[in-house]
Amino acid sequence: xxxxxxxxxxxxxxxxxxxxxxxxxxxxxxxxxxxxxxxxxxxxxxxxxxxxxxxxxxxxxxxxxxxxxxxxxxxxxxxxxxxxxxxxxxxxxxxxxxxxxxxxxxxxxxxxxxxxxxxxxxxxxxxxxxxxxxxxxxxxxxxxxxxxxxxxxxxxxxxxxxxxxxxxxxxxxxxxxxxxxxxxxxxxxxxxxxxxxxxxxxxxxxxxxxxxxxxxxxxxxxxxxxxxxxxxxxxxxxxxxxxxxxxxxxxxxxxxxxxxxxxxxxxxxxxxxxxxxxxxxxxxxxxxxxxxxx
Amino acid sequence: xxxxxxxxxxxxxxxxxxxxxxxxxxxxxxxxxxxxxxxxxxxxxxxxxxxxxxxxxxxxxxxxxxxxxxxxxxxxxxxxxxxxxxxxxxxxxxxxxxxxxxxxxxxxxxxxxxxxxxxxxxxxxxxxxxxxxxxxxxxxxxxxxxxxxxxxxxxxxxxxxxxxxxxxxxxxxxxxxxxxxxxxxxxxxxxxxxxxxxxxxxxxxxxxxxxxxxxxxxxxxxxxxxxxxxxxxxxxxxxxxxxxxxxxxxxxxxxxxxxxxxxxxxxxxxxxxxxxxxxxxxxxxxxxxxxxxxxxxxxxxxxxxxxxxxxxxxxxxxxxxxxxxxxxxxxxxxxxxxxxxxxxxxxxxxxxxxxxxxxxxxxxxxxxxxxxxxxxxxxxxxxxxxxxxxx
Lengths: 294, 391
Known about the structure:
heterodimer, A: 294 residues, alpha/beta, Rossmann fold, 2 domains, 7-stranded mixed sheet, 9 helices, 22% strand, B: 391 residues, alpha+beta, D-amino Acid Aminotransferase, Chain A, domain 1, Dna Ligase, domain 1, 3 domains, 4-stranded antiparallel sheet, 13 helices, 18 strands, 37% helix, elongated
């Protein structure tokens, strides 16, 4: 098996009729993801993606009619938190929110409502997840993957692609690749994903791609030291040369008062048994050094 | 977005918080006039504070007392024009000097790890809270606002009692709730009062009474929420924003100027940081951080190129695009468009992979751009081009 997305995924795309929703839904379909429904309020009864997918007015209706269990959200920032809450309340188990630029305070009630519904939110401002060979949800280009047994988790979007491409080029395949998102408030953390990988029998090694700011990498490292002691673990941290006090695009990526620096993260990861790469291209070689034979 | 103390205080006043009077002065003359008004209305002295967005202005000599109009003029003359961490002071805040009985710290902040609003307080006010957190973490009182209901009355009461503000319970509860309300009203990341102070004041009869007031205010706003608060955009201080930063922001780009020679254009914050790291690792110095964002069209790419080239130190450019939501051919078109109008020619290394990379490669080849396949290779080529330019 893989985690979060796989052959069991029955996807509803919220915002399927928009420019981004349409473009990336086609790519997901081409990859083999089962898109069973789209939701655009007011366009219920129409179809999307060249007539292959029915569009509903509400997520609840989409679930009733199609048995959707996973959602991917391309709704603009103003409506995205509401779309997250709608999906959770309707009974979607796994919600990926791709939308960027959502005001941070809007995500507080959304994350709470997801927790109360017992659902999982990945993102917002995330690229989604791919389980190579079975399904992809989100905007990660399908071409970069190769089937394999390394679990990849990252805070970034395009940096994830870079790292995964380097792995694929070196013949190192992936079980599942997940971007958790760079916003200050996100639904799923590094630690949450490491716990899922630890329990996944298709994952034999871990790649963690972090960046400066916050302490999420350190928290995950501490857990991994104890619970993932026996499997190969490698990491990359972006922002070694970033100046202090500047927000480097991601709201989360800011060094303040010496906390959240690349140095502190690298030290915590190395202490926890991770091998830390100086460039994303070094990740596959480090995996082999760490004993990965996939 | 950071805003000046005076603007932060205005937001607090609008939310009903107790803030003593103040005036903003841009000249020595205005500072003197403001001082005279405060002295006439009963103040025994004024405090004059540099209005800059960097911390540590007190230590830098940017906060001083003045007992009369002449002294206020001298103090204002010393502070106006002063350089504090590279920022020239262009205005000061003038306020009646407070008779402080006791100082506290109180703030509402976005707690990223918990995903909630966190109210923090300490009976050790007027000092840097980071220092208190390091030396006496137990001296900081914390309460998370409910994610759906906000800060509840009983939480504010508990918080006030723990801070030792039982003697000013009503005011402390109102301020605690007011900080959270201010945060929500303006989509702030941080609303900080340091110091929150018990001050002695004369009441209407001339008797001395104690009152809890906000003597300082620091507010930072969530950039992602600014589109829905157009009135707050006016609080952006043009004196403290680099013109290139402003142009980039208006074009929808995230740009941070650095000191090096290699201009970087990248999509995605994490990859942009990585590209900078690899430029440095290859022996070069990045001139900037520039994230063109997700789904950038050709016009945004052309604008990004213009901003990079406006920095005279830039002698090589590295474009690194890994298409996902961004389409490689759009970026290639933008680069071609930018080159057709640019006035300065510097060597450029372009790497475009991912979504529509093949179409991009065709366009770039036709336009004879220097390209690279791997990120390490691209960084090495850009560094070589930059060193070649200086040699």
